[in-house]
Amino acid sequence: MPPLLSLKSIRRSFAGVEVLHGVDLELRAGEVVALVGENGAGKSTLIRILGGVYSDHAGEIWLGGEPVRFRHPRDARAARVQLIHQELSLVAAMTVAENIALGREPTGRFGVLDRRALLAAARRALEPVDPAIDPERPVESLPAAAQQLVELAKALAGKARILVMDEPTSSLGQADVEHLFALIQRLRASGVGILYISHKLEEVYAVADRILVLHRGRLCATFTRAEATQEKIAAALTTSAPAEVAHA
Asked: What pTM value is reported for the model?
């Protein structure tokens, strides 16, 4: 069976300077792959390519064995690739329910918004994340941790088969982090593939099946969770020479 996601020889330049140098990455259904690297390693550029933000890149994106080309973020979302950025994409003045349904609002006859369906869909999306969040509450009135969870609910409402999490615990307390990790395990069990970006190695060890190290735009090491140590990751971050570590 082909991987859920394959990135092949991905390259991207800015003002004539190449910042990604032929990156290959695979993600399988029900797998959590962590992507780690120092600031400037190319992580954000790579996920923006995957999310359709940058369409002018070299290399190929394959989903389930089929080549795709995302010209716009809506193309990625239509393919059920959902990004949760560190900078939230919520509209502060709108309600939780309106944010969750943004771009796919349910309508009735004559195209009128169906508010009952809107709230019902929001409650379904919030149920696995935090059912205590009021879907009729304006997002701007929520604390930062709750807004992060709304962003996650929004991604799940899009029926993600590939979920990209960029520093997802940056605004969460310990209890919310543990709740997020439990949710990640349920998503993994349902066959969702998760690309998890974090600087916090203790989190990476807690959730990832494999750990990929990106350094200066090159994928320089791959570890299984059992193989990875802080010493090995630190050593990988000091060299741009590829060093593949086989699965155990």
From this structure: 0.86
